Amino acid sequence: MMQRMQELLKRGDDVYQMIQVAGEEGITLKDFISYQAAKFIDMVYLQQDAYDEIDVATPIMRQKESFRKIVELVSANYRFTDQQQALDYFTRLTGLFKNLNYAPAGTPEYSGLLLKINQLFQDTQK
Amino acid sequence: MKLDKIPTARVVAVQDDIVSIETIAGVSQPLIKNELIYIIPGSSEAKYTERLKAEILRIYGKTADAQVFENTVGVGVGDLVEQSGELLSVELGPGLLGQVYDGLQNPLDELANEYGYFLPRGVDFPALDVNFQWSFVPVVQVGALLRAGSVIGTVQERGFTHKIMVPFNTVGSVTVTWIQAGVVTVNDAVAKIKLENGQENTVTLKQNWPVRRALSTNMLKERIATREYPVVPLITQLRLIDTFFPIAKGGTGCIPGPFGAGKTVLQNLISKNSDVDIVIIVACGERAGEIVETITEFPQLVDPKGGGSLMDRTIIICNTSSMPVAAREASIYTGITLGEYYRQMGFNVLLIADSTSRWAQAMRETSGRLEEIPGEEAFPAYLDSAIKTIYERAGVILNSDGSTGSLTMIGTVSPAGGNFDEPVTQATLGTVKTFLGLSADRAYKRFYPAVDPLISWSRYISQLTDWYEKNLDQGWTADDAKNAGITEAWR
User: Fold this and answer.
1) For labelling alongside A126, which of A63, A115, B180, B299 has CA 20 to 30 A away?
2) Cα-atom radius of gyration of chain A, to the nearest Å?
3) How far apart are CA B407 and CA B156, in angstroms?
4) Per-residue pLDDT, B292
5) Contact at 8 Å (CB) between B111 and B204?
6) ipTM score here?
């Protein structure tokens, strides 16, 4: 799992380099989704807010839960119609997941955010 | 002038902090490599006897070159030198936790109380409080047959059970001839042991150990202790490290990064949140401001593991850029030896060295003055082996009482201009098994921790796989990209 995510991060960087040359309109939707998925992992999993008392330290069991969810989200088969739709989806997902990182585990806030994330994901799978 | 010992040598040449000495005919005593000596400046105007600590680096017949751990202003040819006959050592015993030491284990708080905040030179303070009373509880009885490192009793040190052990340099087995419970200071006798040759030695709560020698050397050789393979990850609670680039408990890691990329912040986070018992921070040649932050912050932070102050389980070795260079070189060894001592008690210790580049620079300075042949970027040719000697002291040790302790070492490297091709970074990369490369680009984007996932690596993954499979998910570390039924979205 971990190595697969590392590969995705690498792929995301490759696409980012392509974007630097060809622009976002110069790459395929498939590549764009990879790029967004990699960015999503970076934003919500690799980065941690040292000034937030919850996000600063993630116990290993919470890491497990969070990582599983992320793997599920980025491994799904998305059928977006265009780049804008993909961008909107990942932007909203990133926002929700970041808030989830700030929420203390086991609180209604935490489960509420998880529900919203699942809902958002389910909507793309219809 | 009050002298503890009769001077047995005198200064014959001075070049910055390298001083050449020659033994005095008639009273001479053999010179030993790495022996601790004290230089007594003849022109001193201090109200106390200045005794400048120095270490012998090189011997030619009856002369020797020594590096002085203090400013050598006023030292002149003919000044007297006392030879201690001992190697540069640290004091090991209860009372180390919560202390802030300089690179030679002088307690900085005590020094400040006695002499004020401008540290005087040439003063030597006992590292352990000699007046504090500890309640010693024996765990063995008279007649017990013990060996080096065997536990004879315990004292309570800030919530930790501090084991008092048979001196680590003891050869063969010893018999306890006397042992008594009671309230004692670190210098009081708590037991007497009879060596194989019939000699009887007194055991106190403290013992000395030369810093440049691994504490477990004798015990490993005599098979009293064994080295174990590190198989458990150090949980730092930083997702990026724990999930992608784990460091094993008892393993080694390095954090190289350009200036301002967040090395010190990352280190502080690791030391605060990692699942270790004891943290040793060696601030080696860093700016004083950075360590001040740690010293002021740690006592106020609540230890997530216990509830006491974070400082209760921390030792800070502080040799900032404003302090003498030679002592900086020794400071890492001091930190490691303290770490090894607590590991011997079965604790998990984390040592953070900030920064090994400045330590290497100190070594370069000394090497230059000794006129050794310079290697790349004027670092000594033995830079690589010196770095390896440091990191190889990390590890997991199974002690004779069945307890297992670990010493994990994380060093930062500050390559000039963020150039990872410079010798210190390269030598470190060839030694450590986890590399957390910080990137200026990510720091600029405010992506923290600024560890670049594309250049970092961990060589611990395969040996930690069992732990991950058992405690997290099946296939956590597996390279399952090909058969996971993964979407074609990015492949």
Assistant:
1) A63
2) 15
3) 21
4) 83
5) no
6) 0.94
Q: Which of B282, B268, B261 lies closest to B330 in space, CA to CA? A: B282
Is the Cβ of A46 closer than 8 Å to some Cβ of chain B?
Answer: yes
- Asked if the model's pLDDT at residue B491 lies above 90, the reply is no
User: How far is the C-alpha of B461 from the C-alpha of B59, rounded, in Å?
Assistant: 46
Given a cut of 60, whether residue B197 has pLDDT beyond it is: yes
How far from the centroid of its chain's Cα atoms is residue B446's Cα?
33
Kindly tell me if the per-residue pLDDT of B487 is higher than 60: no
Alpha-carbon distance A116 to nearest alpha carbon in chain B (angstroms): 23
In one letter, which amino acid is B305?
A: K
Nearest chain A residue (CA) to B450:
A47
pLDDT digits (tens, 9 = 90+) for B239-261: 999 999 999 999 999 998 887 78
Q: Count the residues in chain B.
A: 491
Cβ separation of B239 and A10 shorter than 8 Å?
no
Partner-chain residue, chosen from B454, B479, B488, that has the shortest CB–CB distance to A9: B454
Report whether the peptide linkage leading into residue B355 is cis, meaning its omega lies within 30 degrees of zero. Answer: yes
Cβ contact B481–A37 (<8 Å): no
Q: Helix (H, G, I), strand (E, B), or coil: what is residue A7?
A: helix
Give residue for tokens 């921390």. B314
Calculate how close chain A gets to B487, using CA atoms only, in Å: 5
- Per-residue pLDDT, B115: 87
* Closest by CA position to B122, among listed B168, B54, B220: B54
Q: Which pair of tokens denotes residue B243?
A: 């999930």
Residue A100 has pLDDT above 80, yes or no: yes
Q: What is the pLDDT of residues B378-426, one digit of tens each?
A: 999 999 999 999 999 999 999 988 999 999 999 999 888 878 899 999 9
Q: Are B147 and B134 in contact (CB under 8 A)?
A: no
What's the CA gap between B247 and A105, in Å, rounded?
25
A13 to chain B: which residues are within 8 Å by CB?
Answer: 454
* CB of B257 closer than 8 Å to CB of B339: no
- For residue B405, the model assigns a pLDDT of 96
CA distance B226 to B220: 6
The whole-model pTM stands at 0.93
How many Cβ contacts (< 8 angstroms) between chains A and B?
Answer: 107
Beta-carbon separation of B448 and A47 below 8 A? yes
Q: Is residue A117 less than 8 Å (CB to CB) from chain B?
A: no
